[in-house]
Amino acid sequence: MDISDWRKQIDELDRKLVEILNQRAKAAHEIGKLKRTAGMPIYEPDRERAVFQNVRGVNQGPLPDADLQRIFERIMDLMRKIQQEEIAPNAAEGLGSTELES
Amino acid sequence: MDISDWRKQIDELDRKLVEILNQRAKAAHEIGKLKRTAGMPIYEPDRERAVFQNVRGVNQGPLPDADLQRIFERIMDLMRKIQQEEIAPNAAEGLGSTELES
Fold first, then answer.
1. What is the pLDDT of residues B63-82, one digit of tens each?
2. Which residue of A lies nearest to B70 if distances are taken between CA atoms?
3. What domain count does chain A have?
4. Of B3, B6, B18, the CB nearest to A68
5. pTM summary value
6. Which of B38, B73, B80, B102 has its CA 20 to 30 A from that of B59?
7. Are B88 and B96 in contact (CB under 8 A)?
8. A61 in a domain, yes or no?
9. Is B17 in Cβ contact with A21 (below 8 Å)?
């Protein structure tokens, strides 16, 4: 395989990543709604630790755990933002409040 | 579905993410080897732009393009590191000089 073949493979992998990340965002959004109903906090350190543990547990490399963790840290930052918007849409004093009134 | 069900779904999605990210790392490693042989630079802005374009092109939401781009920026940082190690394992001495010899 030449570089162009490998890049086609990467593009295909990236399309799958986009799809899965969007599915994950939908799930985070649903959890946000349930948390709002239950009055639960967005940030749950135990759950975040469980996510990293799951990731490390299935990692067969070649990416080191620490690299995967850096990627998942960013993913979870964004997912917290999604839940923040779901739970406290007016946290920024009305910023974008209309689209969040569901 | 309750929170625990959604979390099970997230854990399953994360396992898929770990697998795909590792496949991507393997491809980046292979490209690194080919670049070394061809004396090509690691950092190729045109290719990075093409990756983001591919990501935005297939994104159907709910994640906004900007959020996906932030995740892919981190992924690509790590992939560049993998290629750096493949192309110039002793870069600590020559500080990445190989990548400039294009």
1. 999 999 999 999 999 999 99
2. A74
3. 1
4. B18
5. 0.87
6. B80
7. yes
8. yes
9. yes
Alpha helices by DSSP H, listed for B1-102, are 3-38, 45-58, 65-87, 91-94
End-to-end CA distance of chain A: 50
pLDDT tens digits, B2-32: 999 999 999 999 999 999 999 999 999 999 9
Are residues B24 and A13, on separate chains, in Cβ contact within 8 Å? Answer: yes
Amino acid in the structure at residue A87: I
Identify the CATH number of the domain in which residue A26 sits: 1.20.59.10
Q: Which domain holds residue A64?
A: 9-84
Query: Is there a contact between B71 and A67 if contact means CB atoms under 8 Å apart?
Result: no
ipTM greater than cut 0.90 = no
Nearest to A34 among B3, B24, B78 (CB): B3
